[in-house]
Amino acid sequence: MSKRFHSEIRKQLNTIISSGMSKTERVLATPQSAEIALSDGKKVINFCANNYLGLANHPEVLKAAKNALEEWGYGLASVRFICGTQSIHKQLEESMSRFLDMEDTILYSSCFDANGGVFEPLLGEDCTIISDDLNHASIIDGIRLCKAQRLRYKHSDMSELEEALRQSADVRIRLIITDGVFSMDGDIAKLPAICDLAERYDALVMVDDSHATGYIGKTGRGTFEHCNVQGRVDIISTTFGKALGGASGGCISASKEIIEFLRQRSRPYIFSNTLPPPIVGAVIKVLEMLTLSPNLRNHVMTNAHYLRRGLTEAGFDIIPSETAIVPVMTCDENLAVKMADRLLQEGIYVIGFTYPVVPVGKARIRVQLSAAHSLYHLDQAIQSFVKVGRELNLID
Ligand SMILES: *Cc1c(COP(=O)(O)O)cnc(C)c1O
After folding, report:
1. How far apart are CA 353 and CA 225, in angstroms?
2. Ligand 1 centroid vs 138 CA: distance in angstroms?
3. What is the pLDDT of residues 199-226, one digit of tens each?
4. Residues identified as active-site
5. Domain of 36: which CATH number?
6. Most informative mutation of 110, 155, 238, 239 for ligand 1 (most atoms within 8 A of CB)
7. With 145 labelled, which of 28, 32, 75, 289 sits at a CA distance of 20 to 30 A?
8. Would you give the end-to-end CA distance of the chain in angstroms?
9. Ligand 1 atom nearest to 211, measured from its CA
10. Which domain holds residue 66?
């Protein structure tokens, strides 16, 4: 035991805590849903989960998970290539490929792992990765693990992207990587322009559709469907931990060659445990439900429009977008924190985001809609926002 080390860490921890930037974890006393209870017994309406389709505690999803648990067991106690592949894993890979309109799919324990394992095997030091500067942390870490050169472009700035493509003209492979939906503003990547540029400069396109798969696009396939760029995206990574049920797990979908190569070389796939059967069975069920009916994705989008309109009419400053992420700007940092606290007292659970998660002066409350929300929940939220917004002089 090094006393010195422990006291150094304690000091750093105190710095984080006194900066007001520390993360506190609220403990829930119920399953994840539109209405939840916190451990102190307080009942709140939840507007901060990524439970877009309301499937995290949906009876059909629970049933599919239980059935898979009983038929296929709790866990595999193995990685895929030793003795950890069951027919349901192959079935989920097929369903996912069909859903994303790709040739093949490889499963990971999380999308964080998927992004951690995709770049390093595919790209070497004679390649370049070109990345939107607001991409998710898992993409940034995945890129760090890879020997390829790195270029960044300002968020969704297509002329900077083109400049990066010009600069990297002589490398072997170029890959453009972007989030499909950006989680802080809820905006969608400019995929038509990105695909145009990729074709002009012979680059690959990869989209991380974690905040989109299941509910963005006419049938919920994701941003490629919304942007009408089917067949023009080379690689999609996504999570099962958001719209597709909310448990955990992720995948990469691409051509047969890319996926087979990843099965041979992707380290988080080769050296980490197989996805547990209950999750696999549940996600298969979710994809079946989404293929049969667009009701859930229509419902979350209707909810998002309703809340967006209600808050805009009340005078709030909302960042426009076509997703179920509704950022209500306070701009002032303290105001964002105070407002989230007051809303929680009113029974509305939302999170205030401040620098450095968002730029200085762009503090906000992020509201996330779910198909599990009813009109009653939305009206409660609007009422509380108006009450607290007036109290804090954010609106008249
Ligand atoms: C949430 C998220 C991830 C991480 O997904 P997990 O499956 O929870 O690891 C990766 N990328 C993006 C863009 C995300 O929003």
Report:
1. 29
2. 7
3. 999 999 999 999 999 999 999 999 999 9
4. 183, 211, 242
5. 3.90.1150.10
6. 239
7. 75
8. 58
9. 15
10. 59-292
